[in-house]
Write a structure and sequence with these properties.
This protein is about 40% helix and about 15% strand. Helix 4 packs parallel to helix 15 and helix 12 packs across helix 15. The radius of gyration is 24 Å and the shape is globular. The site of flavin mononucleotide (FMN) has 33 residues, from strand 15 and helix 13.
């Protein structure tokens, strides 16, 4: 009955609108909104509205929707006849070592690592604890992000990477000694580099203030530069000091930019064990759209240039490479490993997979992020055990598909993957990546 009435009401409206857009000339034709939206794009129009409202830099969640890394133009080469696939899945290993030259390398069961996402700066303690538990169930690591080591997360994590960060909250010997790897965070893909940001004292709760050693009423600022650093030399000295004081792997995280070779030269002058390359598709809790969309270098290009530069300078073996930024399927992970990464960091997809069907607890009245963010309205509704299980299931599912792909490629380990295993439908990409072009016959 209701439908009938609605149809009765809508019909004349739809008729009039159809006649109007098909008859009326510009400038009165209502279809003008379509041409304007085509010209500007719905996102620019919506964000212009937000800017007109606030007059402030916008803070867009989860990173840029603009994906420039052409992973879908790259395929993996199977072996079925002239060379045979791997006989059984049992023979195949996904064990991954980060910082193999360190006194205490980080040995993981899988090449997929949960990336740095800050307790306080972005996620709630409950979500961080659940990610720690889920990553431990899958035999991999989690990461503090730009925060400090919360004892609750440390207790649940099997492997914990800590970010030595520009907020200065994770730099004490006592804190650093709690970690399985130390990551000097100099930049982030979603920001295209490093900028300052401040969390007002009013938005930090007691537990977070304690964790970050903040006084009551003290704002929390992440600076654009590492405290005490005013030259690349200072960074080299900082990394080498951390290396001299800690047996676990020490690494450097940078956002990929077109100065990547120059940045790598500085990292090469350190004794670091690993390099994190975070591409322009990288996620974040929030960042200004301009930094997300228009600054940096896409993940694929950053990764290829990093591997090539290290190989050209014959220092590839000194560093483990962790690729980050918009990687969200086992196919992406496999291709990044074949390009030359040793492991991948996942952020946005890990959060979405971990929350899984619990999104139904808040939609449509709220966006799912309100379940997981530090200042989220519905963090109490989140079931942490379920998050941990969902994350572990996601990681196990990805691992199973990675193993099946390795079997089809005739490989026995993720570390056997190489550019030999890649082909592309894009001629320029073939030349840039030095991989096969699908449009030409393979001679050998
Ligand atoms: C919710 C969230 C919070 C983040 N917080 C941090 C952080 O504290 N420090 C950092 O270096 N990167 C941070 N990142 C970026 C990730 O570490 C990583 O570089 C990027 O997310 C990878 O891209 P992806 O989200 O597409 O997987 C964050 C990302 C997300 C999604």
């Amino acid at each position: 009955m209701m439908n009938w009435i609605l149809m009765k009401l809508m019909n004349p409206l739809a008729d009039n609108f159809t006649r109007a857009i098909l008859n009326q000339d510009y400038p009165t034709n209502p279809a003008e909104i379509i041409t304007v939206a085509d010209k500007l794009g719905p996102r620019a129009i919506i964000e212009a509205g937000m800017r007109a409202q606030t007059g402030k830099a916008l803070q867009r969640p989860f990173g840029s929707p603009v994906v420039r890394s052409p992973w879908d133009q790259i395929l993996l080469n199977s072996r079925q006849l002239f060379q045979l696939p791997t006989e059984t899945l049992d023979e195949i290993s996904t064990v991954t070592v980060i910082g193999k030259a360190a006194k205490k390398p980080l040995k993981l069961d899988i090449p997929i690592m949960i990336t740095g996402m800050s307790y306080g700066g972005s996620l709630s303690l409950k979500m961080k604890m659940a990610l720690a538990e889920g990553s431990a169930m899958a035999g991999t690591s989690t990461n503090t992000g730009e925060s400090a080591v919360a004892p609750e997360t440390r207790a649940l994590a099997k492997y914990l990477v800590g970010q030595y960060n520009r907020g200065g909250w994770l730099s004490s010997r006592e804190q650093l000694d709690l970690l399985d790897a130390i990551e000097v965070q100099l930049g982030q893909g979603a920001f295209g580099g490093a900028v300052e940001s401040t969390m007002q004292s009013g938005s930090t709760g007691e537990h977070l203030r304690e964790t970050w050693h903040l006084q009551e009423g003290e704002d929390a600022t992440v600076r654009a530069r590492m405290p005490g650093v005013s030259s690349p030399r200072d960074i080299i000295d900082l990394v080498n000091k951390l290396k001299s004081e800690h047996d676990v792997p020490v690494g450097v995280k940078i956002a990929a930019s077109d100065f990547i070779e120059q940045d790598l030269q500085v990292i090469a002058d350190t004794q670091a064990d690993f390099i994190v390359i975070d591409g322009a598709e990288g996620g974040t809790a929030v960042a200004p759209p301009t930094l997300e969309d228009d600054v940096g270098l896409p993940t694929l290009y950053g990764l290829v240039r990093t591997v090539d530069w290290l190989e050209e300078h014959r220092i590839r073996d000194r560093f483990s490479i962790i690729a980050a930024g918009g990687l969200c399927t086992p196919g992406h992970f496999l291709k990044a490993l074949a390009v030359g990464a040793d492991a991948v960091y996942i952020g946005t997809i890990a959060v979405l997979a971990a929350v899984h069907t619990q999104v139904a607890k808040v939609i449509p009245e709220a966006v799912p992020a309100q379940l997981v963010l530090y200042d989220g309205k519905y963090t109490d509704k989140l079931d942490a055990k379920q998050v941990a299980t969902s994350l572990a299931n996601f990681l196990n599912s990805c691992t199973e598909e990675i193993k099946l792909a390795l079997q089809a490629l005739g490989k026995k380990s993720v570390s056997e993957l190489s550019r030999e295993d890649l082909v592309t439908t894009n001629k320029d990409l073939a030349e840039f990546m030095n991989i096969r072009y699908a449009g030409s016959p393979r001679m050998q």
